[in-house]
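Subject: for your reference before the review

Hello V.,

The reviewers asked for a structural picture of the protein, and I figured it would be easier to keep everything in one thread rather than splitting it across files. Below is the amino acid sequence we used in the manuscript, unchanged from the supplementary table.
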Amino acid sequence: MNVRRAILGVSLALSLVLFALLAGCASGSKDPFAGTKSLEATVVERQYDPPGSGGASFAGTGNYYLVFEGKEGDATTHYRFRVTQQQYMRFQEGAHVQLFVVDNNLRDIRLLQ
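And here is what came back from the structure prediction:
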C-alpha cells in the first residue's frame, strides 16, 4: 500500500511539473521586435523637446530625438530614438548611418561614408 502511495505521489508531482513547464512555454511568446539588429538608415528628421515639455524636466536641457528611415527586407521602416545632444548635433538630416539596436533600444550610431 505504501509503494502505491509513493508511486502515486511521484506521478502527481511529475504531472504538476510537466504542466507548469508547458504552461510557461505557452505564455512566454517571444517579442518579435526583441533581440539585436544592425541596419543601415538615413536621418530624416531631428526633433527637440525643450525643458518642461513632453517627458523633459524643467531643470534639464530637454530631450533630443533622431528619426531614421531604413529598409528591413522589402519594407521601409521608421524609427524614432532619443539621443544625446552630441549625437543630435553630429547627425544632420540626410546622413547615412548604421544603427545598432538591442531590444528596441538604440545602442550606437555610426556614420557611413
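For the response letter, the relevant points are probably these. Helices lie at 2-27, 85-90. The first helix runs from residue 2 to 27.

Happy to draft the paragraph if you're swamped.

O.
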